Predict the 3D structure of the following.
Amino acid sequence: MVRVRFAPSPTGLLHIGNARMAVFNWLFARRHKGAFILRIEDTDVARSERKHMEQLMADLHWLGLTWQEGPDVGGPYGPYIQSERLHIYHDICRKFLHDGLAYRCYCTPEELEERRQVAKRTGKPPRYDNRCRNLTDEQNKAFETSGLNFTVRFKVPEEFLVFDDLIRGACQFDMSLVGDFVIMRSDGTPSFHFAVAVDDTLMQITHVIRGEDHLSNTPCHILLFHALNRKPPQFAHLSLTMGADRTLLSKRHGAFSLSEYRKLGYLPEALLNYMMLLGWAPKDKKERFKADDVIETFEISTMSKSSSVFDQQKLDWLSGQYLREAELERLTNLAIPYLQAAGFVSQDENTIDRAKLRLTVDTVRNNISCMSQIVQEVNIFFNDIVISENHIEFLSSETAQSILLSFYNEICKTNTLSPEIFKDTLKTVQKETKVTGKGLYLPIRVALTGREHGPELYGVAHILGIDTCKKRIERFLLVKK
RNA sequence: GCCCCCAUCGUCUAGUGGCCCAGGAUGCCAGGUUCUCAGCCUGGAGACAGGGGUUCAAAUCCCCUUGGGGGUACCA
């Protein structure tokens, strides 16, 4: 059975780059009818926070991902939070020490740093020189009794290590270039490498799907799997996602967090679709698809090896497509908080004119790429309009006045202003005034909205309703008198 | 510095030796849709990083260069 995991560290908001890793793990698990596991890697005590973990899970759920095992749902291989697994790492570390796979290192961070600098200056690889590996018994005893802090380092054999990456094929590393690395810090917490290998072993992970930034760490992990007596899982290193500036998308880019997109009112399925398009393309070349549509055909080996740039414009296009197709009722509900925040509709949802709201959302959905943008679009429907001096002058002209008057007389003959009636009305006005095109529409648009641009006029008139339309026209009929 | 990975339109990609003087999408430009912005429709410009090989034939295979990214921590 396939078992994969997404293992974020709760040190901030989940950004698109990491979320994408979760998506492909999830997709892979579904493709192979396996389990998707969420594990929280919070061994970096200084930067990890519980609220981040909760936010992260909420964001993932919002995206539509579900996991079979994790901190919130439990599972047979828990706990799923590394800070709650400390005793496990200690036990295994002790065993490593006992079996001679690891040793205590008494070098201080300052000493290490200095030696690194020296190595760099002399053009040598700045790796740990393994000096504590060969401490004599006397030296070890002396250190032990001195009560000095120590780390535990893993003995890295000097060998060539080759492994097959599902995406990149054969990758090989010369381990003589890698120093003995720390598996247990002096404060008793495990290092990332150690915790990962231990957890992936104990949690029976079969496939490790993660970012390419871990590629060079992989040989270290493989060594640890061997030490743990376990066949290493299969690896698949996905290309990374960059920002428009071609630097790695990171937590520093707050705007690229899942939470941010959620707040802006992007539809989760649109974002999910876009993320799947980064580094992968479906066989049929259709760019709009649901995860369900591609489950059967998804092959991780076909994923791109090169990194990709996150393209906000394409996301916006895709998001717009989804907005156009989404169920109106859903969009209306989604719109309400934004309109409330802008003061356009009441805080009390029961008093909101939903019919009008639905119509409004339906009219402007073509003009926006995420729901928060609705605020700029709908001002004219909820506020009294302000007409500039220029526009007053414009509407005072003889032709403008004749158009407005004709239009006014026509709408007085009816009691609703559906799009059809509006179009018929304009035809009549056109015949009467002999004005067509822009000359015909613009005066009415300006009188009705105070703007020269906006959504389709017939839609605007419909939402405004006949009474408001009359009132707004009346204001300018007075101009002439 | 050293190690590793990568390299097709601005961007995301299709392409696994002949179907490719390279296809799609987005973005951009133009025209259309009896108003505008947008949307939609139609059309257009736009790429195999460079140099060597291998081969009857190379975007596709090999080598070098260049460029980009990652790693080289008691971060993950």
